[in-house]
Amino acid sequence: MRQSHSSVTDIEIIEDFSATARCDEGFLRVKRLRCRNRRADGSSSSVYRVDVVDRPRLDAVSVLVYRRGAAGLLEILTRMNLRPAAYFRKDQRDAMTVPDPGAGYLRVEEIVAGLLEPEDKGEEGLRRRAAEEVREEAGYPVRPEDIQLLGGSFFLAPGILSEKVFPSAVDVTDVKQEEPEGDGSPLEEGTLLHWRPLSEVLDACRRGDIPDAKTEVSLTRLLARLG
After folding, report:
1. What pLDDT does residue 3 have?
2. Which of 62, 63, 60, 61 is nearest to 169 (CA)?
C-alpha cells in the first residue's frame, strides 16, 4: 500500500455558486432540452424536459490492474480516491429513501481509470491511454500491447450521463512498480493503493463496500475471460 504524506479528513465548501453559474461552463456541461417523441404513424408525444450531462472529454477507459500471487491466485489493485460528489451525500440524508450507512464517503475505492483524449482514436488509442493511466495512477510501466480489452463499453447512468466507459485489464505480475506520479490534482491527495485477492474485492463490491460499478463490471468480465 502507498499513501501520500497528506491525510485528508474533510472537504470544505468555500463557495456554492450554482445559482449564478451557466449550465454550459465548468467541468460538467448540462444541456436542458425540451423534447418530444416522434412515432411511426406520424404522431408525436407531449413535450417534456430532458437534462443531459456531458464532460469536456466524452468517454473514459478503466483498467483492472492484476497480478498472480501465491499459488497463482489473482490479486487486484484498487485505489482509494477523494470523491466529493459521493462525500456530499451526507448532506442529503433526509432525501434517502433507503438508509445509506456509507453516506459521507470521503474516499471511494475503485480501479484505475481516465478520460479519453481527442487523439485516442480506435483500439490503438484505447490501449495507449490505458497504459498511460496505469503508469500515472499505479506506477506500473506497461506497454499498450499489454492491455487486454474487456468487451464493449457501457453507460454508468444513461438517463443523464452521455459518458461511456471502455473496460480493460493488464497483468503486472512481473512488472516492477515505480512511484506513481499522479496528475498533481488536490483530488489525488492522500490516494491509497491496495492489493488484495480478487474474490475479496468482488465480495466487497457485492456488499456495497466498493460502490463503484466499473470495478464490479471489470471483475466479472475478467473472470469470464480467464474462465
Report:
1. 46
2. 63
* Tens of pLDDT, residues 47-105: 999 999 998 889 999 999 999 988 889 999 999 999 998 999 888 888 889 888 766 78
Q: Give the dihedral sign, CA 62/68/70/72.
A: positive
The length of the chain in residues reads 227
Per-residue pLDDT tens digits for 135-191: 999 999 999 999 999 999 999 999 999 999 999 999 999 999 999 988 888 888 888
Amino acid at site 118: P
Distance CA 16, CA 204 (A): 34
Per DSSP, the residues of 52-69 read EEE-SS--EEEEEEEEE-
Its pTM stands at 0.90
CA-CA distances (angstroms) from residue 68 to 93, 195, 213, 225? 41, 11, 23, 15
**C-alpha–C-alpha distance, residues 190 and 171, integer Å:** 25
Count Cβ atoms below 10 Å from residue 143 Cβ, excluding itself. 11
C-alpha distances in Å from residue 210, one per residue of 8, 16, 213: 19, 29, 9
pLDDT given at position 2: 47
Exposure b/e, 169-189, CB count within 10 A at least 16 = b: bbbbeebeeeebeeeeeeebe
Burial of 24 (0-12, 13-18, 19+ CB in 10 A): exposed
Q: Which residue has the cell 467541468?
A: 27
